[in-house]
Amino acid sequence: MKGKIWVVGIGPGSPEYLTQKAIKAIEGSDIVAGYDLCLNAVRDLTHDKTIIEMTWSNRNERLDHITREVTSGKNCSILRSGDPNFSGSSGIEDIYDRFPDAEIISGISSVQIAAAKSKLAWGEIVLLTFHVSEDLEKKKQNLLDSVRGGLIVLLLSESRFMPKDVAKFLLSSSIDDKMPITVYENLTLENERVFHGNLKELTGKTFTYLSVVVIGK
Ligand SMILES: C[S@@+](CC[C@H](N)C(=O)[O-])C[C@H]1O[C@@H](n2cnc3c(N)ncnc32)[C@H](O)[C@@H]1O
Prior knowledge:
By secondary structure, the chain is α/β, with parallel strands linked by helices. The chain has helices spanning 20-27, 36-41, 59-71, 92-98, 110-117, 137-148, 163-172, 199-202, and strands spanning 5-9, 31-34, 50-53, 76-80, 103-105, 125-129, 152-156, 180-185, 193-198, 211-215. The termini are far apart.
């Protein structure tokens, strides 16, 4: 490939969490590509860039386009939320396969922000993501085993398993309805919201896709 390609972790959404490395990569790019949450976080840096907005459905076509542009000598940043290597259900692996020379710029993950807010040390946390392509049953079993074992769980919810589904699942598995649970929604964004209560109080409450859940503290 003639151009340079970066896969850039842009943090949880607020520009305050962009690293200097991320800023440099974006500044050095002719093209900046990503989902709208990511593009919004770097808006101030991209006035003179070609923007490629990606969606779940146009993703492959956009990556084909980026391949052609980079081959013709353009530099491109592909943005990913949080840290690029953590829990991307839309396949970081195929970006790495397509662009083996890509430089990966680590970012601050949403789970780091949630752990900091809940004052959790990594050594005491079980980290689970439901952003997986496979069936969720195995993940649910991991969740249950961890909660039954008295461990603190930090999990990324997903549209098939939102915070209210987490509560419903744990209650239906006979976990104490007083079990503490926190939901961090839209972390670092203007509409950030925190729910802190117990499983019973969480029942039926709705949150957006951008939610991180802490169980057991
Ligand atoms: C595809 S995963 C990507 C995770 C990302 N790579 C990271 O390190 O945070 C998307 C999930 O991350 C979590 N997430 C990402 N940004 C968030 C934010 N600002 N607030 C709360 N949760 C967030 C949510 O659970 C969301 O469903």
